[in-house]
């Protein structure tokens, strides 16, 4: 018999179930394969595939903005949820590649989709941002301040990639994913959420230039400062540690065990990281949803895009317990258990 989660594992303060009532995603048309990258830097399909599992990634057009991709994913999610844009109360856009430092990309999305009654803000939590958004949405909905929240993860990482650095340029891609969250009086929905950060590791995954600390000037423009800088091995190690503990935390808060989970949707950064987590959690790899071979690491968009694909393909079914877990620069991590 299916195990029942704790009735209100978050804090017991509200029995308002928050449900994901629609998902959507968008990926740009242009495909960049490992073979294409071999013509740009000294790399090989074999190296990229064995170290990461990535075969290809999508690259946005020059004039295609993060807010354009976010808006397309959002409209699909709203359509599936049967919610009109004017009924959205809050738009949260998780991104490390906003259209501009301000105003928030969420404001551009608001304009593009016609969600004129929404409040809008961006979330800066790198790759973990979408699940930070789910946590924030859940808090706003359970506290009765907002009823319909649109959470979007969207990235144009190609705009901050150093295309001459083989250590990083093979890893990333562009795209967007979205979810509509509401209290609809359904029994199923978000069961537990957990977010965390460790500012001691701000120097292992970061973009040094383009902010107030180091504006891009004529003098430093050639130094690739407004691109992703990463210490790969340390990031790998911390990713495994934090995603493992975040997974356990969300399960504990939900009162569930790994055996109860029908599908794990992890951050889509690297297949070896996913394999290491599967091994340590003792969950068979075939219960993990993986699409990073097609899209690479799309940061805040990754889990949102994977959730939409798992939903629309029927990989997750009504009543399934789904664990989502992410990790990103900051460091940041987050996990969520949802009864689908
Ligand atoms: C990036 C990553 C795949 C590199 O794998 P690794 O096994 O740690 O590889 P190393 O960095 O030790 O590099 C090994 C060698 O491969 C080389 N190399 C790096 N990138 C390469 C590429 N694209 N093609 C070919 N060789 C490459 C290195 O220069 C190094 O060569 P050297 O030994 O001659 O110096 C791995 O560290 C990783 O996945 N880290 C986490 C990244 C991540 O998930 N970031 C986003 C988090 S949200």
Q: If you average the pLDDT, what whole number results?
A: 95
* CATH homology superfamily of the largest domain: Thiolase/Chalcone synthase
Number of strands: 13
Q: How are the strands of the largest sheet arranged?
A: 1-7-6-4-5
Q: Report the sheet-strand fraction.
A: 15-25%
State the name of the first-level CATH class of the largest domain. Alpha Beta
Overall CATH architecture of the largest domain: 3-Layer(aba) Sandwich
Ligands (ions, cofactors included):
coenzyme A
Overall tally of structural domains: 2
Distance between the termini: 17 Å
What is the helical fraction, as a range of percent? 25-40%
Structural class: alpha/beta
The dominant shape is globular
Q: Which spans have pLDDT < 50 for at least 5 consecutive residues?
A: 7-13
What does this structure look like?
This protein is of the alpha/beta class and 340 residues long. The chain folds into two domains: 19-187, Peroxisomal Thiolase, Chain A, domain 1; 191-339, Thiolase/Chalcone synthase (Peroxisomal Thiolase, Chain A, domain 1, 3-Layer(aba) Sandwich). The protein is 31% helix and 23% strand. The protein has helices spanning 34-38, 45-52, 66-81, 105-113, 129-142, 166-169, 232-254, 271-281, 292-295, 302-312, and strands at residues 19-26, 30-33, 56-59, 90-94, 119-123, 148-156, 174-182, 190-197, 205-206, 229-230, 261-266, 321-328, 332-339. The strands form four sheets. The chain has a five-stranded mixed sheet, sandwiched between helices. Helix 3 (66-81) crosses helix 4 (105-113) and helix 7 crosses helix 8 (271-281). Coenzyme A (COA) binds at residues 43, 47-48, 51-52, 127, 166-167, 170, 230, 232-233, 235-236, 239, 269-270, 297, 327-328.
């Amino acid at each position: 018999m299916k195990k029942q989660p704790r009735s209100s594992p978050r804090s017991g303060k509200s029995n308002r179930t928050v449900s994901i009532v629609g998902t959507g995603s968008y990926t740009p048309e242009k495909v960049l394969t490992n073979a294409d990258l071999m013509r740009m830097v000294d790399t090989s399909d074999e190296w990229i595939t064995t170290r990461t599992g990535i075969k290809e990634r999508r690259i946005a057009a020059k004039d295609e903005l993060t807010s354009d991709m976010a808006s397309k994913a959002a409209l699909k999610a709203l359509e599936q949820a049967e919610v009109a844009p004017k009924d959205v109360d809050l738009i949260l856009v998780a991104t490390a590649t906003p259209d501009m430092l301000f105003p928030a990309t969420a404001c551009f999305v608001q304009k593009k989709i016609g969600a004129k009654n929404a409040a809008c803000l961006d979330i800066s939590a790198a790759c973990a941002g979408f699940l930070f958004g789910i946590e924030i949405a859940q808090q706003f909905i359970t506290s009765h301040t907002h009823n319909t929240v649109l959470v979007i993860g969207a990235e144009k990482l190609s705009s901050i990639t150093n295309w001459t650095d083989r250590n990083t340029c093979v890893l990333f891609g562009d795209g967007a994913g979205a979810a509509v969250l509401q209290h609809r009086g359904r029994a199923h929905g978000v069961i537990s959420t957990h977010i965390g950060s460790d500012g001691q590791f701000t120097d292992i995954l970061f973009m040094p230039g383009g902010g107030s600390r180091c504006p891009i000037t004529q003098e430093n423009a050639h130094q690739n400062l407004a691109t992703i800088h990463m210490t790969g091995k340390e990031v790998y190690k911390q990713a495994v540690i934090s995603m493992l503990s975040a997974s356990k935390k969300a399960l504990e808060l939900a009162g569930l065990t790994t055996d109860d989970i029908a599908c794990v949707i992890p951050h889509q950064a690297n297949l070896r990281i996913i394999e290491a987590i599967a091994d340590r959690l003792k969950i068979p790899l075939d219960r993990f949803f993986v699409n990073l071979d097609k899209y690479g690491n799309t940061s805040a968009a990754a889990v949102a895009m994977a959730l939409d694909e798992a939903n629309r393909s029927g990989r997750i079914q009504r009543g399934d317990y789904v664990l989502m877990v992410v990790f990103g620069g900051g460091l940041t991590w987050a996990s969520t258990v949802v009864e689908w």
